[in-house]
Amino acid sequence: MNRSIVRGLAIVLVAAVIIVVMFFLPAPEQDDHAHDGAVTDPWVLISHDPDTEHGTYLANGFISARILGDGVGSRDGRPLPCFMAGLYDNQKLLPIPTWSDLRFHDGEKQFKIDQRDHYLQRLLMKSGILVTTATWRSGKRTLEGSIEVIVSRAQPNVAMIFAVLSPNFDGELTVSAPLGNISDRFEKLSTEAADASWSAHPVPTRTLRTRNSRIVLALAQHLDADTDVKRPAGKISPSVTLPVTRDQKFMIYYHASLATGADGDSARQAALSELESAVG
């Protein structure tokens, strides 16, 4: 037989064997996290560990916050530090009150991250948005969904937290955004609920002054939901109570603005103006 014919038959036979082997090989195992959609995107950093000690540091050049596995500015109920550019006391950068804490209560206990359930935290590098998708638990009650923290680059004085959650129960849920971790190097000037034409309810504000450098800092907060809420009478810190229905999603909107000024009034008005431009 012609050698070229033999060589051709051999090549065909080898190719046929390879095709048969490939056909019967087991399919490669799917990555458990492939559905997260961020595995192949170099602009998205992901974490599946809610117990990380490092967390994420969000900043826009003016204000910053540290966010750990809980998805907000606290861990196990302890507020994490926030900072603001130019806010020094005795030549040391001074932590500002923690504006980034958002808490959920069912009337008895606070909902906390369920570390046994599916967990995903994504840092979207192009936008600076941190998204935590998880289950928060209080006993047998759960809230499942996501929380987004945004330190705005378009408005450097304003930060936002958006939550979209689904409960496994019927009842009421209380959401609060306490200002924590207030350094003793601040003098407390005022805590007021300011009337604002753009808000249907008074806006909680806080003014502080550094003890040595005499810098006046003001914070204004706005907390709301996509449904009717009740607000506690006589309480200035932001808190709302809303009805929830099993397996029906609800949304929480929280904005915080920060500003400095020559005195408490000017700083407060600056913070309220920043908040109005974001919310109103």
Automatic annotation (TrEMBL):
Q: Name one GO molecular function term.
A: carbohydrate binding
Q: Where are the transmembrane segments?
A: 5-25
What sequence ranges are listed for the domain Glycoside hydrolase family 65 N-terminal? Answer: 52-260
| GO annotation terms (biological process) | carbohydrate metabolic process
Alphabetic keyword roster? Membrane, Transmembrane, Transmembrane helix
- UniProt cross-references to Gene3D superfamilies, sorted A to Z: Glycoside hydrolase, family 65, N-terminal domain
* Pfam families found in the cross-reference section: Glyco_hydro_65N
Q: Which InterPro entries match?
A: Gal_mutarotase_sf_dom, GH65_N, Glyco_hydro_65_N
Protein name, as recorded: Glycoside hydrolase family 65 N-terminal domain-containing protein
Q: Which organism is it from?
A: marine sediment metagenome
Lineage of the species this protein comes from: unclassified sequences, metagenomes, ecological metagenomes
